[in-house]
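Dear Dr. L.,

I hope this message finds you well. Following up on our conversation about the binding site, I have prepared a predicted three-dimensional model of the protein together with cobalt (II) ion. For your records, I am including the exact sequence and ligand specification that went into the calculation, followed by the structure tokens. Please feel free to forward this to your student if that is useful.
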Amino acid sequence: MKVNFTETVLRDANQSLIATRMPFSDFKPVLEKLDKAGYYSLECWGGATFDSCLRYLNEDPWERLRNIRKACPNTKLQMLLRGQNLLGYKHYPDDVVRAFIRKSVENGIDIIRIFDALNDVRNIEVAVDETLKCGAHASGTICYTISPIHNLESYVKLAKEIEALGVQSICIKDMAGIMSPKEGYDLVKALKANVKVPIVVHTHSTTGLGFMTLLKCVEAGADVIDSAISCFSGGTSQPATETLVYTLKQYGYDVDVDENVCKEINDFFKPIRAKALESGLLNPVVMGTQTDALIYQIPGGMLSNLVAQLTAQNKLDKLDEVLLETPRVREDLGYPPLVTPMSQMVGVQATANVLAGERYKNISKEVKSYIKGEYGKAPGKVSEELQKLVLGEEKPFTGRFADTLAPGMEEAKAYLGSKATCEEDVLSYIAFPTQAEAFFEKREADRKNTFTYTIKRID
Ligand code: CO
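The resulting structure of the complex is given below.
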């Protein structure tokens, strides 16, 4: 049986270990090798890469994509997209979503992994539709979570709904690394028995389950697995590519990835890793195994956010209370998967509830819009009490939120005028307005060979 590999070093590993700070110039020399390794796809764009290019690296994300495409003509290029939210956290109008996808495909993307934080299929359907219209591969995604209302039956039902959109594969996205080998095996088996499209498994090594889970998922029939080249693997990143290739080949699976090329790729990244460790960009803590996430069933990243929040307020002694309150808030919100932005929403609200000494004395703006139905449909039932507190006698919005939004492309084009040199610029601006405008300004200054500085008022 064939097992395909998606290499994540340029996107998820980069994002999970070093906050997506790897500039194009760092990995440019290895692209030719990545193209020859035998990967099914190279996850290299979307997620936080776009924001990071504009905000920190002074790179045009579209140009980065075109350059990767040029250097990797033989491997499918893959991106991660948050459905109607594209690469951010708010809903965009349909014309923006369609234009973004069209341009992504035009600039070189072959596979778009499309997910919604609430697993609300209405929030991915336009993105899937446009991906298919552009002739690219739409990979519909299930955000994996554990709760009393999530089970094999609910996941199979969701997978069937996603398959009905016409996707070419379905990805199980375990962003927290909490899917156990048994759960992974059972879920892949159930999906293989009920849907026809290939199944992709994405997990993280955070809790240490990763390798075992991927092996069991492959045994259950998973077609594609995500992994990261070893020196950018482990911890909050993916399990190591070479280790999985070695193991699966021994078991007789048909694997295209060439271990000799992997060795060269890994050797290339070693000094980059060393540099990141030295500068502190790579913190050894994120490379370790954090089993607390299994006890609290919350992602490791969320746990460290809670600790940071409480430390900043000098209230770290309240951590145990907050950890008890977190699952209660999640239950009140109808058990959303703890992926951004839901993880932040739940964590911040739980902290507020504990610190105020009274539950929901203060409710965040985000929780309010969630309860109003502006993020989509909650997976389970939202607490009636909380709903009343936010909405009074009003009913929550039950439609598809993007239907309430006016088109956005023309307005942004008109606003930018000559600052935007192409439609890609307009999309960068819509996705990250402040960062994009600052980037355009710098680019223009570079072009004119002048420089800019910020005036610090002293009056
Ligand atoms: Co991930």
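In brief: The chain has a mean pLDDT of 95.

With kind regards,
A. P.
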